[in-house]
């Protein structure tokens, strides 16, 4: 399960996500990934499409433009990571695990990019 439900970042900040799957199940039964979606993408719709994309590690190839950052799949005992630059636009960006059923089980979270520091905060 994803334990980290929120991440806060500054615009343009470099972020590294490292994901380790602890499981003794075969990869076909249990693996995880981490996919950061562009602002405004319907995470539920993306997850639904991902179920059909088994041949592409559950990343729907026709929705690549909705992805800001992604890891590969990590099966039991494997670690994957991705380094990316946080978006410049302040706001909330959903991230999910697109392995079938995992989004519905709650493997999702929100990356919040904070606004430029002003006196109104
Ligand atoms: Cu998962």
Number of helices: 1
User: Distance between the terminal alpha carbons, to the nearest Å?
Assistant: 33 Å
Largest sheet: 5 strands, mixed
Determine the mean pLDDT: 93
User: Are there runs of 5+ residues with pLDDT below 50, and where?
Assistant: none
Strand tally: 9
Descriptive overview:
- The structure is a single chain.
- This protein has 1 helix and 9 strands, in the order E-E-E-E-H-E-E-E-E-E.
- The model has no long low-confidence stretch (mean pLDDT 93).
- It is mostly beta strands.
- The protein has one helix at 43-51, and strands at 6-9, 14-20, 31-32, 35-37, 67-70, 74-75, 79-85, 91-96, 108-113.
- The strands form 3 sheets. It has a 5-stranded mixed β-sheet, with no helix packed on it. Strands 2-7 form a two-stranded antiparallel ribbon. The chain has a two-stranded antiparallel ribbon with strand order 3-6.
- Helix content is 7%, strand content 34%.
- The structure holds copper (II) ion (CU).
- Copper (II) ion binds next to loops.
């Amino acid at each position: 399960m994803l334990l980290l439900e929120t991440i806060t970042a500054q615009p343009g900040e470099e972020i590294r996500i490292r994901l380790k799957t602890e499981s003794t199940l075969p990869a076909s039964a249990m693996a995880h990934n981490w996919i950061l979606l562009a602002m405004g993408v319907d995470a539920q719709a993306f997850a639904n499409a991902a179920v059909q994309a088994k041949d592409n590690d559950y990343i729907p190839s026709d929705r690549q433009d909705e992805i800001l950052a992604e890891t590969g799949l990590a099966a039991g005992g494997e670690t994957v990571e991705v380094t990316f630059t946080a978006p410049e636009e302040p706001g909330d960006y959903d991230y999910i695990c697109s392995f079938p059923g995992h989004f519905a089980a709650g493997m999702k979270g929100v990356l919040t990019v904070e606004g430029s520091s002003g006196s109104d905060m």
